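User: What would this chain look like folded?
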Amino acid sequence: MPTEHPTGRDTQDEDAIFLERTFAEHQAPLTRYAAKLLGDPDRARDMVQDTFVKLLAQPRAAVEGHLAEWLYTVCRHRALDVLRKEGRMKRFEDGEAERVTAHEPRPGHAVEAAEIQAALLQLIGQLPPNQQEVVRLKFQNGFSYKEISRITALSVSNVGFIIHTAVARLRTEFAAQRP
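Assistant: Here's the prediction, encoded as structure tokens.
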């Protein structure tokens, strides 16, 4: 029997709306993240599906306020479990370009911006795996150092150091590429 909410709306309806919004907002970036961890877009989609199934089992109050962190942490743990089970920890392919893209086209980008982005992605792909992961979580997914710390189980200061080191290396290598 549905529970009546003080606003007069059914809590099941609100939960359904919450889940739909969560899926719409987080499915594409979470799939990109999982694809980088697993090196396989098809398995990444399965991993993201597993993550959302686990979300269904959670009371909404248990994840509110840190939903994105929760999703990325669950997805990461599941992906690392699968990789461990397979006996390999191949998280990123060197030089691999972004293969999983969002469904929405990104109009209005100048050719020069696209070239710069491609060059930066290539350089990020050449970073060590731990640097790649935290750089992607920070700059592609917008997580804070504290959130990255919780997702990766690294200390906040270690996250900061890894990002600083990676950005310094990217800046140097990018400058060396430009005439």
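The longest helix spans residues 11-38. If you want, I can go into more detail on any region.
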